[in-house]
């Protein structure tokens, strides 16, 4: 349909229609489901109708906004997700909510991963955030599984806290190969030349272990190259943040494509990039001052020089 914005294996994600008002009420009018959304209060029908109008304006202004999520198998709305700018904020923020009977089926993370990809590829949004209550562990798992990393813990004016998650896309550079010595990468400040020839062989070889999305596609056999790639994974963890093993695994799974989270987790600990309790109940990011060689690698990796 012409209002479809993207699809995933199980889902069709489309723009809102006026006929979605009933579905909006079913999701956002559920008091229990709204516990972690906004101010924790359900929306009235009048507010849902107003939101439809605001969303249509966002489509005109940004080209995106909130979207309806439908199951392909049932052709029904099961929830909503979207990219918004609450209060006119500069940061693009991902939002989502679903009917309670569809929780726990992986729908939220599947839709969010697709939404992030859509935002990057269709609208060129390089950085997106999501905000949750620190106690909302279920939402944290969804965000980590979708490829976001845990960010800062914000202190709100009322004394409460908001946990921020973030996704930063790396520029895709086509036609890069190990023989190239100088590649121009573009960013908001303009051209930035990174001279690969000035970098060590270890850095250059480590860079080519990643795909265009910055994910590790193989575990290098040579230890020095393998350990260099681990520094990129280290950057996905936030300072002064405690993680469960499941949360660590979720971050690792968003970083690589070959399904060996145990080896990567063990290497992070062996390199003392992550600390952990003896019973593996808690992990944390260790503070380091990377060497110049590692800093060269991280600059190039962030620039998308793979």
Could you tell me the number of beta strands?
13
Q: What would the principal axes of the Cα set say about the shape?
A: globular
Provide the CATH superfamily of the largest domain. Answer: Gcn5-related N-acetyltransferase (GNAT)
Radius of gyration of CA atoms, rounded to a whole number: 21 Å
Number of domain modules: 2
Strand arrangement, major sheet: 1-2-3-4-5-6-8-7
Q: Provide the residue-averaged pLDDT.
A: 85
Q: CATH fold name of the largest domain, please?
A: Aminopeptidase
**Low-confidence residue ranges:** 171-192
Structural class determined from secondary elements: alpha+beta
Major β-sheet annotation: 8 strands, mixed
Number of helices: 9
Percentage of residues in strands: 15-25%
Q: In CATH's first tier, which class of the largest domain applies?
A: Alpha Beta
**Helix content, binned percent:** 25-40%
Secondary-structure arrangement, i.e. CATH architecture of the largest domain: 3-Layer(aba) Sandwich
Order of helices and strands: EEHHEEEHEHEEEEHHEHHEEH
What is the quaternary state of this protein?
A: single chain
Q: In angstroms, what separates the terminal alpha carbons?
A: 37 Å
């Amino acid at each position: 349909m012409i209002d479809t914005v993207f699809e995933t294996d199980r889902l069709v994600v489309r723009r809102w229609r006026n006929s979605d008002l009933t579905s909006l009420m079913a999701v956002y009018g559920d008091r229990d489901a709204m516990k972690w959304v906004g101010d924790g209060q359900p929306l009235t029908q009048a507010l849902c109708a107003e939101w439809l109008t605001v969303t249509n304006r966002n489509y005109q202004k940004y080209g995106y906004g909130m979207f309806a999520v439908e199951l392909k198998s049932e052709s029904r709305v099961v929830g909503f997700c979207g990219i918004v700018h609450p209060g006119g904020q500069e940061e693009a923020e991902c939002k989502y909510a679903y009917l309670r009977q569809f929780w726990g089926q992986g729908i939220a993370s599947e839709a969010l991963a697709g939404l992030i990809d859509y935002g990057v590829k269709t609208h060129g949004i390089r950085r997106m955030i999501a905000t949750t209550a620190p106690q909302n562990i279920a939402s944290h798992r969804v965000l980590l599984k979708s490829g976001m990393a845990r960010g800062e813990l914000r202190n709100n004016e009322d004394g409460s806290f908001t946990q921020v998650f973030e996704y930063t896309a790396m520029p895709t550079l086509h036609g890069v190969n190990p023989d190239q010595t100088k590649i121009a990468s573009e960013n908001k400040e303009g051209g930035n030349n990174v001279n690969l020839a000035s970098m060590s062989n270890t850095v250059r070889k480590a860079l080519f272990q990643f795909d265009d999305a910055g994910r590790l596609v193989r575990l290098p056999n040579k230890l020095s190259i393998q350990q260099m790639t681990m520094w990129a994974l280290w950057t996905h963890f936030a300072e002064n943040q405690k993680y469960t093993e499941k949360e660590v695994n979720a971050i690792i799974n968003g970083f690589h494509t070959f399904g060996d989270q145990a080896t990567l987790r063990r290497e992070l600990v062996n390199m003392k990039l992550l600390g952990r309790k003896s019973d593996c109940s808690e992990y944390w990011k260790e503070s380091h001052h990377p060497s110049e060689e590692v800093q060269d690698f991280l600059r190039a990796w962030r620039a998308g020089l793979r």
